[in-house]
Structures are given as structure tokens and as C-alpha cells.
Amino acid sequence: ADKGLEPFIPGALERWLTPAFRQAHPEAEAEIAAGLRANNLTGYLRSYRIFAFSDDTLAPKAGGIRCPALIITGEFDHGSTVAMAHALGARIAGSKVVILQGLRHLVTTEAPELLARHLDAFLARDPSPRN
Description:
Layout lengths: L8 H8 L2 H6 L1 H12 L3 H13 L1 H4 L11 E5 L7 H10 L4 E5 L6 H4 L1 H13 L7
């Protein structure tokens, strides 16, 4: 029988969330798992394939970005690694790379206030628009 995304969920949760967060917030973990279950398997796998194999096509174009860029990832993010963040930052002139210590992939879920502070600081550094 088609199990949908069920076989992928335990590994995804492990990669995306720290053990401490998972233990302290089982309701958040359950909500993320439910969101994964609700996806169309074919659509999800097609999208994931594009995500997984697009770096070779998109990374060389990053040097064309001419506006301030903030690149944030978790220290233990296996999908958007620290090395990837630094490599992207090296391609974008004037970018800032921030590594959120102790976090994995879902920094928006685990540390929204910390993420917001970094975003606020980045946006406040030059409030004037560029032409």
C-alpha cells in the first residue's frame, strides 16, 4: 500500500529539529509531521528533486546578486550546511553569513525570536533603498 511520505517523516524530523526541541515541544513536532503527511507524494518528491539538484545550476548565478543578502543556517543543518552558507556568502558581494549555534534546519520553528533579531539587525543596517 502507498504509505505516502510516512517513511520519510522520522528522518526529516531528526534532521530538521534538535532532540531537545523535539522533547520539549511534541505538539510542534506532531504539527510538522502532519504537514508532511498532507503533502502529495509525487509533488513533494518532484519538488525535492529540484531542490536537491539545483545547486549546480543556481550557485554560479549567485554572483549576480547586487543587493544586500543575509544568509542564515543552523550549525547542524544537514540540508543547508554551514559550508554551503559560507560558499554562497563568498559569491554574493557584501553578504552577511550567520550561523545559528546548536540549531538544525527549522530555525523558524525552534528559534523564531533569534531569527527575527538577526533579520531586524540586518534590515536596520541600511534602511535606504538601492537603485
